[in-house]
Design goal:
The chain is of the alpha+beta class and 148 residues long. It is built from five helices and seven strands.
């Protein structure tokens, strides 16, 4: 696996990352209906284009298989292609973000216990819970910070 920081965000790359996002969400966000995934998907390209630091994990043939977005020291997004989950890519990306960007906080859906467990394994702890997500939808968020 190779980690690269993206400067140029071409429409082809954004589509590849959108496909990764969708495969990941369908595998991990089981609390979302198909219609909700479709609605959220419309906003993902804008987020990918606007996040200040976009870091991609590529496989051995140079295809993106995961990515993360960072705003200041906040992990805004981390998604791994469903086919590539469980191979340590998320761990490598997050370690890179912690080391290079001092990532020390994030928010995760409470209904995504695998993600919560992963972040706890990586040293984060819950310090706040909200009843709704940032768009006001009834999906509780857990705010986590790095326990140093």
């Amino acid at each position: 696996m190779k980690i690269i920081e993206v400067i140029e965000r071409s429409p082809v790359l954004i589509q590849q990352l959108l496909d990764i996002w969708e495969s990941s969400v369908k595998a991990t966000h089981l609390f979302l209906s198909g219609e909700e995934v479709k609605n959220i998907k419309r906003y993902v390209p804008k987020a990918l284009n606007e996040v200040p630091h976009l870091i991609i994990a590529e496989n051995e043939i140079g295809c993106p298989v995961g990515f993360m977005g960072i705003v200041e020291q906040h992990l805004e997004m981390l998604f791994i292609s469903h086919k590539e989950r469980g191979k340590g890519l998320g761990k490598e990306l997050l370690k890179y973000g912690i080391e290079k960007y001092s990532v020390n906080n994030l928010a995760v859906n409470e209904q995504n216990p695998l993600a919560k467990d992963f972040y706890e394994y990586m040293g984060f702890e819950v310090y706040k819970r909200t009843e709704c997500d940032e768009q006001g939808n009834p999906y509780p968020l857990l705010y986590m910070r790095l326990d140093k």
